[in-house]
């Protein structure tokens, strides 16, 4: 039975999608700085991060040491939510299945009865338990200019959810074994299953921004990012006994489509010392949809739709040479694809700068979306923190995230001057 371990399903699917989506991009990629500041960035992003947060911010005024050139190489962030230690349960269940098979084959009735009862309890506890993982990757180059600012970017995100489902037909088989009926091959005919639902969105593009001086001395920045987008879904459902390693990346489990899309943004600097900045961005102006594969409808698979459509976010920030405080709101809701919650974030973030060499960051964000009908791991209040270091022209950023369900981390290496 070792070749059928569900834990291999979890690991191999993630590796398979990551390998085919190395340049993937989410609907809202977060740099490490943004990650540490509650996911904010629409009104505060530095030039290289502006390509993914708000292209207009490439043309905004920043610190003198960061507004001429920016390079991010690379930025990576990871979030994992596993409320019931799902992966550990899988390993324990598979060990019990192996032991039960051995007991049946050796006609050890007493041991088989005990193991069948144990397996029933494990399956019942495992039913509907879910693990969710998000992995993001970003690369960017930005060259701000007095007349035109230009950037290039490729960002990436993979979201994968995994769920166990206990089939009631297995309950009858295990009860029979508990009652002393040894069923040869029973462990090979179990219908309990693992479901993997994942999505990736490929983006790569060019950003342009220009600053306009207003008659009152204020300025407004405008930006746009034409980009190439590729959507990909992966949906795999299989029984424990029918699972095989080489079926992870079969054509029946994947769908994909591609096309061009556009992000637009604006930012407005105001106040006596231009200490206030407001921003707005609308991402994915052209709606795109992709249906998943449902090759195992006999095991409860259903077609799901990955939607990438216009997502609007507004933000406001107050800044000085030593601090940034910002608030941000999603005006549109992001619909869940797998065993996830819908999201619509209200976020607050802050950064305190120590003479450009070090930055301390913190943030919090709250999900405004209603999820009464969703069955995924809850996306609720999340707290973040981070540290930035700028030494000898190199920039090094760390971020951390935690909530009742999630743990996350971010790392970014780059330069700015």
Number of strands: 16
Query: Mind telling me the CATH class?
Result: Mainly Beta
CATH architecture: Beta Barrel
Q: Profile the largest sheet.
A: 14 strands, antiparallel, barrel
Taking pLDDT < 50 over at least 5 consecutive residues as the criterion, the unreliable ranges are 1-27
What general form does the structure show? elongated
By CATH, the topology is Porin
What number of structural domains do the residues give?
1
Q: What percentage of the residues does DSSP assign to strands (E)?
A: 35-45%
Q: Order the strands across the largest sheet as they lie in space.
A: 1-2-3-4-5-6-7-10-11-12-13-14-15-16
Order of helices and strands: HHHEHHEEHEEEEEEEEEEEEE
Q: Measured on Cα atoms, how large is the radius of gyration?
A: 25 Å
The total count of helices amounts to 6
User: Which structural category do the helix and sheet elements fall into?
Assistant: alpha+beta
What's the N-to-C terminus distance?
57 Å
Q: How confident is the prediction overall: mean pLDDT?
A: 86
Could you estimate the helical fraction of the residues in percent?
10-25%
